[in-house]
Amino acid sequence: MIIANHVSWLDIFAIHSVRTVRFLAKSEIRRWPLFGWLCAQVGTLFIELTRLRSIVQINEQVAVALGQGDVFAVFPEGRISSGNRLLPFNASLLQPAVASGAMLYPVAIRYTRADGGSCEEADYEGDKSMLDSLLLMLTQPVICARLQFLPPLACAGRHRRELAYAAAQLISGALGVPAPRGRNDIPAGPTA
């Protein structure tokens, strides 16, 4: 399972350019014109975040698929941030990796201009519409998607909160931003 920070709708294409994966996404994305259809075509599973049963069912499906060799990518922040900070990671998205004993591959994503400077036009944070985001990107002659694959984390015998914490630490360190603070900022002990 790949776990990454979430900066833009481009993240999906950036990850797919390196490795074919399936994604977990909130159910509203399925209703987006064209983009929702594209997500469904690559095997994305859509979660109704307001329904606990939906999350449990999706986690069960993902655990089975991971056990069969599928690779999933998750954005545990649950929403997009600007890339200059990390939001707290939702550890429940990591439960399928724990249940199947998968490896967790943290990835730090950033977008830069040709000179290496940060490209804020690529982020999708705030009140931007998809059209606004696309028009901002078109103002840039070059946008480089930089994916930094970090040391993998073994999930066997570990708690999902411990994994969320470890992945957040690795990703924040690679991006040079503060680690997120929140309910998952204290690692739990091993699972019983």
Would you mind describing this structure in some detail?
The structure is a single chain. By secondary structure, the chain is α/β, with parallel strands linked by helices. The chain has one domain. 32% of the residues lie in helices and 17% in strands. The chain contains 6 helices and 7 strands, in the order βαβαβαβαβαββα. Strands 1, 2, 3, 4, 5, 6 and 7 form a 7-stranded mixed beta sheet that branches. The radius of gyration is 16 Å and the shape is globular.
- What proportion of the residues form beta strands (DSSP E)? 15-25%
Rg (CA only):
16 Å
Q: What oligomeric state best describes the polypeptide chains here?
A: single chain
Q: Helix and strand succession? A: EHEHEHEHEHEEH
Structure, briefly:
Helix content is 32%, strand content 17%. It is α/β, with parallel strands linked by helices. The chain has one domain (2-175).
Keywords for this structure?
alpha/beta, 6 helices, disordered C terminus
SSE map:
Elements: E1 2-4, H1 10-16, E2 22-26, H2 35-41, E3 45-47, H3 52-67, E4 72-74, H4 95-100, E5 103-112, H5 130-138, E6 144-149, E7 153-154, H6 160-175
Parallel strand pairs: 1-4, 1-5, 2-3, 2-4
Antiparallel strand pairs: 5-6, 5-7
